Amino acid sequence: MKLYAQVRWPGYFPLSALLAASLYGQDITLPAPQKTGGMPLMEALAKRSTTRAFDSRDLSSQQLSSLLWAAFGINRPDGKRTAPSANNKQATDVYVLLKQGVYGYDAKANQLNLVLAEDVRKLGGTQSFVTNAPVTLVFVADLSKMGGGSEEAKRNTANINVGYISENVYLFCASEGLVTGARGSVDRAVLGPKLKLRPDQAIILAQSVGYPKP
Ligand SMILES: Cc1cc2nc3c(=O)[nH]c(=O)nc-3n(C[C@H](O)[C@H](O)[C@H](O)COP(=O)(O)O)c2cc1C
């Protein structure tokens, strides 16, 4: 059951419009992701790179929806995703850190479920550049979904699962004229409680997305 009212978010609205409308504390239904077009793959590969300087300008809701779909959205009727996962366990949760709060990406419902109505973007990394980026994604492994095996084996698999998702984000950003940077340097002890993680969930990687700094 949802604890919060839900708001539909038209594609042309920038994230800041949400702020202006004071829609804090609510789940957000995203516009449908754009699944066609984009840059030819080889050109996107040629442009893929890590950026550590972001403009503070917001993404549009359409860009955010397409970004999340590219990262780890559902791309087939059987519920499989844009990134592979070991045994199709889909054991990675994508958390989205925005100005207006922390959300969990629900790929099936194409919505953002509110976790915390607080701007914790600065906790998405230990380097100062993270604060400026409008969006930071945090990839969290759900070890409880990964079946048997040692903790070490599960964490190895979790790292590989997240690598595919992170590369999807890199290629989407290259294609969209956005910039991005993956980050292993995250203070997990501080960010974990803000994401309300259970002991069997582990922060694997953070990745900021935005426009290049002019
Ligand atoms: C697993 C992983 C962790 C990373 N962690 C950080 C990080 O904490 N801080 C950072 O500035 N860059 C981080 N990076 C980005 C790398 O430094 C970057 O990919 C590398 O310098 C190569 O640059 P390129 O991505 O532009 O090819 C990370 C990349 C990966 C794959």
Present the secondary structure layout.
Elements: E1 6-8, H1 15-20, E2 27-29, H2 41-47, H3 61-72, E3 92-98, E4 101-106, E5 111-116, E6 135-142, H4 151-176, E7 179-183, H5 188-194, E8 201-210
Parallel strand pairs: 1-2
Antiparallel strand pairs: 2-5, 3-4, 3-6, 4-5, 6-8, 7-8
Helix pairs in contact: 2-4, 3-4
The structure holds flavin mononucleotide.
Flavin mononucleotide (FMN) binds at residues 49-50, 52, 127, 181-185, 205.
Entry keywords:
single chain, 214 residues, alpha+beta, eight-stranded mixed sheet, 5 helices, 8 strands, 22% strand, disordered N terminus, binds flavin mononucleotide
What would you say this structure looks like, in words?
The protein contains five helices and eight strands, in the order E-H-E-H-H-E-E-E-E-H-E-H-E. The chain is an alpha+beta fold and 214 residues long. It has an eight-stranded mixed beta sheet, sandwiched between helices. Helix 3 crosses helix 4. The structure holds flavin mononucleotide. Flavin mononucleotide is lined by residues 49-50, 52, 127, 181-185, 205. Flavin mononucleotide binds next to strand 7.
